[in-house]
Amino acid sequence: MRFMTRRVLATMACVVLAASMANAASLSTSTNAPTADGADIYNLVTPPTGSDILNGDRAAAGQTFLTLGNSSGYMLNSVTIYNSRTVTTSGGTWNLRLGTVSGTAFTEIMTDTITVGGSALSLGGSGADYITFTLTTPYLLDADTLYGIDLVRTGAGNYLTWAETGDLYAGGQSYTSPPNGLGGPTISLSSSQDRIMLLDIDAMPPSGTIIIIK
């Protein structure tokens, strides 16, 4: 591909770039850890030391993270988690929330819903361990901001987990957020645990720049 750069209105740049990265809400799995690059935020250390269940009778499970200092912000495309439980079939609906965090207060700014069929997943054991939730539309993150991202399954069923390690990511902490099956405005932080995860993030170009892909 060849990239051409021109100066245009900043608002137009954001709209065109966001549209070029838009995807339908989806879930995919892999036996291999994702590859981190660019502005990605991640903790991919295994084996896990614990996990939280993603099910309708449990609180939402999540991770806080701190964006870096790119003045134009960052585009969040997807989140990959590590499932530590063997599952042969686990269709259902998952809610993904994104919000800003101050202390133990979570202010929701975006939600997304992903649904898969009842026999669509084979996880753990000889199946996949890494699950990627791709946002319906990439979300623009501010620079130097503490966010939280969490997941919960709506309703009971053959549940997944989101595994943790020790305190290995310096920019945030793992957390849970009641009420069960939803998540709410308060989070319970763990000072000694981080989720095994990768946030697929792209640094936005300088204000007023548009990238045309040919």
Which structural class matches the secondary elements?
Answer: mainly beta
| Poorly predicted regions | 1-24
Q: What is the count of DSSP helices, taking H or I runs of 4+ residues?
A: 1
- The rough form would be described as globular
For the terminal residues, how far apart are their CA atoms?
A: 6 Å
Number of strands: 16
The strands making up the biggest β-sheet line up spatially as 8-7-10-5-12-13
Mean of the pLDDT scores? 83
What is the makeup of the main sheet? Answer: 6 strands, antiparallel
- Topology pattern, helix = H, strand = E: EHEEEEEEEEEEEEEEE
- Percent of residues in helices: under 10%
What share of the residues does DSSP label as strand, in percent? Answer: over 45%
Using the CA coordinates, give the radius of gyration.
17 Å
